[in-house]
Amino acid sequence: MSEELNNNVTEETATAAPAAEEAPVESKAKTKFGRKLDNYFGITKEKSTFGTEIVAGIVTFLAMAYILVVNPNAISLFGVNKVPTEQLFLATALGAVIGTLLMAFVAKMPLAQASGMGLNYTVGGLIAGGLAGAAVTFGNAMLLVLISGIIFLLLSVIKINGVAIREVIFDGIPECVRGAIAVGIGLFIAFIGMQNSGLIVASSTLVDLIQFNTYAWPYAASGAVVCLVGLLSIAVLEHFKVKGGVIIGVIIATLVGIPMGVTKWSGMSWKFWETFAAFFSFNGSENGGVFFACFTEGFKWAGGASQIMPAVMTVITFCMIDM
Question: What residues contact 309, with CB distance under 8 A and at least 6 apart?
């Protein structure tokens, strides 16, 4: 009887008690500008500090900086794409800056954006292989990427019964297929990486490992050795949870590649600002005009109407990779 009475009293008290309003979080910043930043991004509200966010930003940059090197190489797959590497480097950096700033000031989310692994190698393969037996230029590929991006944005924004179309499509894909897509893209990237490093070579069985027991100089397997050193370094650093392990591994491989003749500095310039004028020009991608390439050369298709359906399927493929 007493237990029932106590329970009733407790329930009535809980029901009668008004919901406590969340007290406003006072900023710990010392300056007016700091308080404005704090209130805008909700740093104190999320129980974080400026120092924590700065360190997290540096660590995130170190973890993602490898894309600045990998993305230009991916798009220039097999050397077919004649776009200057420094322009692709600049495009990769500029895209990451714009995407990250939009996430920061529009979405107010501490998320860094950069070119995605998988799609970049697909674009490189598209330029190298062409469509319907006809060549595909850098501008053609960028136009398809732009179209797929717009479609993907619409699929994410337009909702049916309160659910985005993208989510409906994603939920309709069997889980085994989702996993297979991710694994397939990973294997594709790994295969291309092993090809570029010389770790695997063509043979009568289609693919074979390079021979490491040929000691003539220049060492034929030098690229493969540098690849394995970089891969092992990254694996060890990641095992011990070293922050920025990927970029550190890239640096180690770069240094090892200098005496082995793999890392080449000839023709390289650190004056990236010199490429800006060409980057924003209308002179075509091969002359450095990367920024407007999809408009200056994207609509000029070598195969004409025969490339329409392959182009449509390519756009769908790009959307599936982003999904």
Answer: 132
